[in-house]
Design goal:
The chain has 476 residues and is mainly beta. It has 3 helices and 33 strands.
């Protein structure tokens, strides 16, 4: 978690991501949902041969419902069998009625490989792709993918391929999701995009399952239990944030809200570096890697008092240290909410970002992100899952973004919450103002992917049992 200009960050990250086989995904705004209708997918291939230097799945999406559909809510999966386990693929869009700049393509690995599929290409749309009226379709999307070394592809054993399909027609061997629900097609057996990955009892998950849970029931930032439970309330100087600002542990408090203790991170300023006080709470141990991360967090759009407009960042994230510029064992996974913009944005925006590596000077970054430009003021359930195939971000029970296996962590990480100011340019007043980010609980379950519903059930079980803190996660 550090200062970085996201406009340049995103531009460079997208370019590097394209070179490395990834692409940015765009968030799923809450407008028309699956309950309002559905979509169908039509498919054709531009060449009938099963052997080729690239695969060319050309697609159209048609709105079969009665209400308009935001294309940014639609995800399509084309399933195929990799020619070897080590093969790296690249995605490209040759031409599209909606514009190639508005179409994303990312690759994933199936949890349950079959004889005809162990990978998929997921097609998504940016918010600029707009909407589909009832009965309308996207028109041509002339898509293609190929091996990074341009070796010949064998499509004969690819689940979604048909050499006979040389004109557009409905095709059930691709799937489509609308607002996180599968509404079209049949995936290879055991691989529906919305299937839960762990149907077992969420309070006793197998295969790992050691948990960290903290309800943040502390008296103050100086409560000895905070340190005993493995947390550090930051007081040292340094980034991210306004140069010369202070990290003030006394601004981390534990008020009772609606009968429940929460952790409150207050960040304040009077328009100068000396008056700026930021807050951070970080786990002292870097022992967290694959599994499920969850927190209930309250974001704020406005200060408690005083003028609004500061370029504020409110976060929940995991991270390890960058051992050298562009080191390939770096990892970071962020929820970052900017209520007043910043990094080139002018309004509310929420990012989820998965980091491969970066170079602080000159700035370079390899990452993949999902974004949504809307207000997220209020309480939200944030869930991050990491397994051996992908990184998934959920907000309030809905899938927000899926990031590629390229960004999986190589080393364990810490768990962090912080709130800080990017700069002092958003609001130049010298009147004091203070912003609050609140945290209800944090949960990590080692090596176990839980659905958002399972997370809620596990937290409820801890609270029913009167368990305010547990840490079973072994040291790395």
């Amino acid at each position: 978690m550090r200062n970085r200009p996201p406009t340049g960050r995103r531009r460079l990250a997208l370019a590097l991501s394209a070179l490395l086989g990834g692409s940015a995904l765009i968030a799923l705004p809450t407008t028309a949902g699956a309950a309002d209708g559905g979509v169908a997918v039509q498919y054709r291939t531009s060449a009938s041969g099963a052997t080729a230097d690239q695969s060319e799945p050309w697609l159209k999406v048609r709105n079969t419902g009665s209400a308009s559909v935001q294309l940014s809510q639609v995800k399509i999966r084309y399933y195929f069998k990799a020619d070897s386990a080590s093969t790296t693929y690249r995605f490209a869009c040759s031409w599209a009625v909606k514009g190639c700049a508005n179409i994303t393509g990312t690759f994933g690995t199936l949890a349950n490989p079959t004889a005809t599929a162990d990978r998929y290409l997921e097609i998504g749309f940016t918010s600029s792709a707009g909407t589909l009226a009832s009965g309308a379709d996207t028109g041509d999307m002339q898509l293609r993918f190929y091996q990074a070394n341009w070796q010949t592809l064998n499509q004969a054993d690819d689940y979604s391929f048909s050499g006979a399909q040389t004109s557009y027609a409905d095709w059930s061997k691709v799937t489509a999701q609308l607002a996180g629900a599968t509404v079209w097609g049949t995936a290879p057996a055991g691989n529906d995009p919305t299937d839960p990955t762990d149907p077992t009892d969420p309070t006793d998950p197998p295969g790992g399952g050691q948990s960290l849970f903290d309800d943040f029931s502390y008296a103050s930032y100086s409560d000895p239990a905070i340190s005993a439970h493995g947390w550090n309330v930051r007081s040292n100087s340094g980034g991210p944030g306004v140069p010369g600002a202070n990290w003030d542990p006394s601004k981390v408090t534990f008020p009772t809200v609606s009968g429940n203790k929460v952790m409150n991170l207050e960040t304040s300023t009077a328009g100068t570096a000396e008056s700026t006080k930021q807050t951070e709470v970080v786990s002292k141990s870097t022992k967290f890697k694959n599994g499920t991360y969850a927190a209930r967090v309250k974001f704020a759009d406005a200060p408690q008092s005083g003028p609004d407009g500061d370029h504020l960042v409110q976060t929940f994230f995991t991270i390890n240290d960058l051992k050298a510029p562009m080191a390939d064992d770096y990892a970071e996974y962020d929820f970052e909410y900017l209520p007043n913009g910043g990094w080139g944005e002018s309004g509310n925006i929420l990012y989820t970002t998965s980091w491969e590596t970066y170079n602080p000077d000159p700035w370079q970054a390899v990452n993949q992100h999902t974004e949504s430009r809307q207000s997220y003021a209020g309480w939200h359930d944030l869930v991050l899952t990491i397994d051996n195939s992908s990184i998934k971000y959920y907000i309030d029970g809905q899938l927000f973004g899926t990031h590629d296996a390229q960004y999986l962590p190589e080393r364990p990480m810490s768990i962090n919450f912080n709130q800080w100011l990017i700069d002092l340019a958003g609001q130049t007043s010298t009147t004091s103002r203070a912003y609050n980010e609140q945290v209800d609980y944090v949960l990590h379950v080692k090596d176990q992917v839980l659905s958002p519903a399972q997370v809620s059930a596990k937290v409820a079980a801890y609270r029913t049992a009167g368990t305010a803190f547990v840490d079973e996660v072994p040291a790395s």
